[in-house]
UniProtKB/TrEMBL annotation:
Signal peptide: 1-17
Domain of life, source organism: Bacteria
Name under which the protein is recorded: Superoxide dismutase family protein
Domain annotation Superoxide dismutase copper/zinc binding: ranges: 54-182
GO biological process terms on file: superoxide metabolic process
InterPro entries registered for this protein in UniProt: SOD-like_Cu/Zn_dom_sf, SOD_Cu/Zn_/chaperone, SOD_Cu_Zn_dom
PANTHER family from the UniProt entry: SUPEROXIDE DISMUTASE CU-ZN -RELATED
Record organism: Psychrobacter frigidicola
Keywords carried by this UniProt record: Signal
GO molecular function list: copper ion binding
UniProt record similarity statement: Belongs to the Cu-Zn superoxide dismutase family.
Length: 185
């Protein structure tokens, strides 16, 4: 009996099992009912090595966009800033990405502050293995392909040090060390 239930569950995930899996058909008809990531970014070092340092995904959730993923090869124990910058270019050691994404002309702030840059995000701290994770719902951006708050074709930037969430215009977070353009997943 246990085996049969397992087989049934597996079939529900396949395109062949349209009957007996009521949710499957609905999932195919609507836009993004499973809340799969619709955008993603592969971040690379901007020191010329082009070394991949991680991936970050974005998916629409109630009230915002979930930003989640991980960075690798970080200095263990280090805390670094992460933001969405306005321009989708990583040229010139990340400087071409411009300033923080700021469609409403607000000051730089803690990411939870609704009166701050839309592109502001929480700092990340690397564990003993040099892995830093983010899982944050940003309420000021959109994962749509167009529109005032869309982050499609903008860029993630990782900085060398932590964001103090106060200093203008970018939290005194130091040099740009990694960059990734936000693409369709
Ligand atoms: Cu930044
Ligand atoms: Zn900012």
């Amino acid at each position: 009996m246990k085996k049969m239930m397992l087989a049934s569950a597996l079939l529900c995930g396949s395109a062949l099992a349209m009957t007996g899996c009521q949710s499957t058909e609905g999932q195919l008809k609507t836009g993004n009912p499973l809340n799969q990531p619709v955008l993603k970014s592969t971040l690379k070092a901007v020191d010329g090595s082009n070394q991949e340092v991680g991936q970050i995904f974005l998916r629409p959730v109630d009230g915002g966009v979930q930003v989640y993923g991980k960075l690798m090869n970080m200095t263990p124990g280090s805390t670094v800033a992460l933001h969405i910058h306005e321009t989708g270019s990583c040229a010139d050691m990340g400087k071409a990405a411009g300033g923080h994404f700021n469609p409403d002309n607000k000051p730089h702030a803690h990411p939870d502050d609704m009166n701050g840059h839309a592109g502001d995000l929480p700092n990340l701290t690397a564990n003993d293995n040099g892995v830093a994770t983010i899982n944050y719902v940003n309420k000021k951006i959109s994962a749509a392909e167009a529109g005032k708050y869309s982050v499609y074709r903008r860029a993630f930037i990782v900085h060398a040090s932590a964001d103090d969430y106060t200093s203008q215009p970018a939290g005194a977070s130091g040099d740009r060390i990694a960059c990734g353009i936000i693409e369709k997943n």
